[in-house]
């Protein structure tokens, strides 16, 4: 039960959030769940830069080291995670159009959407402009959504799947995957 939210809206929200999450995790990079759910598309600490109109729609994701699990070791080595661009590279890539659809059709359905910089707003109570979607709710939605398509997944499995696809396709080096 979610206070003030019509339960019939939840499946729409669920599949919209899952589609946008997958667009980032599978067509961008397999970031950790906490990073994707806290990704910010507005405000002074943006981590996703959206360029979704024009002839080459794309989005660029850039996390500062202090927000990454391996950020301390990257900083100690004088390195940082390279920006990742989500764009149409192959026929099956739809990341930019999914993100554009999510921003136009799904995100505005969240009552707290205008109170946070996070791409994925909380369902209830954006206590600060940095409040994002709850991990526990996302885990439930991902379990339900992936069961619907017959492919049970956790967020961690997204990371492994991305890495397997990238290595088998020769698209990303082991060193780059290790950084991500």
Description:
With 180 residues, this protein is mainly α. Helices cover 42% and strands 7% of the residues. The chain is built from 7 helices and 3 strands. It has helices at residues 10-27, 33-37, 71-76, 95-106, 135-148, 155-168, 174-179; strands at residues 48-51, 58-61, 84-87. A 3-stranded antiparallel beta sheet has the order 1-2-3, covered by helices on one side. The radius of gyration is 16 Å and the shape is globular. The N and C termini lie far apart (36 Å). The relative contact order is 0.18. Mean pLDDT is 86; it is low at 1-8.
SS elements, strand count: 3
Instruction: List the uncertain runs.
Output: 1-8
Helix residue percentage: 40-55%
Give me the secondary-structure category: mainly alpha
Task: Kindly report the average pLDDT value.
Answer: 86
From the structure provided, what is the oligomeric state, counting identical versus distinct chains? Answer: single chain
User: Which word captures the global form?
Assistant: globular
The N- to C-terminal Cα distance equals 36 Å
Q: Approximately how much beta-strand content do the residues carry?
A: 5-15%
Q: Write the H/E string, N to C.
A: HHEEHEHHHH
Radius of gyration of CA atoms, rounded to a whole number: 16 Å
For the biggest β-sheet, the strand order reads 1-2-3
Largest sheet report: 3 strands, antiparallel
Secondary structure tally, helices: 7
